[in-house]
Amino acid sequence: MASMIISPTFSVNRSSRDCKILKNTIRQCQGIKAMHIEKPLEELYNIRVERKVSRDRLAELGVSKWSAWKTDKCKLPWDWQVDQLVYIEEGEVRVVPEGSKKYMRFVAGDLVRYPKWFEADLFFNAPYQERYSFRAYGDDH
């Protein structure tokens, strides 16, 4: 057996006084602005950064034994096939994720963990040098 719900129809007649009150209320609320909170790119792309890494931390990781890479001013499209841990020894890099107009900036002294499958353009504006180590999934050392 089917049931039917019937809802009543309402009609509202507002007086001019009610409209004035409503307009004043709206005018008073115009100072309220919507907030749009955007996550940092590092969080969006799961990139972990440690700034101004201590010598003890570098020794713990064995950074001095990692492979070295350096370049001069250039733009390099890159995609990470594995997780990579990078310690920036000299210079800076701007990392623009694929499809983004925003960038992350990493400088000498930063330890950066790039996740597998991340794609970005790397911009180097001066001599740059890093040490890097490929990581297995879940290897957070």
Automatic annotation (TrEMBL):
Gene3D superfamilies: Jelly Rolls. It comes from the Eukaryota. Residues 59-132 form the (S)-ureidoglycine aminohydrolase cupin domain. InterPro entries: RmlC-like_jellyroll, RmlC_Cupin_sf, UGlyAH_Cupin_dom. Transmembrane segments: none annotated. It holds the Pfam family Cupin_3. This is (S)-ureidoglycine aminohydrolase cupin domain-containing protein. It comes from Populus trichocarpa.
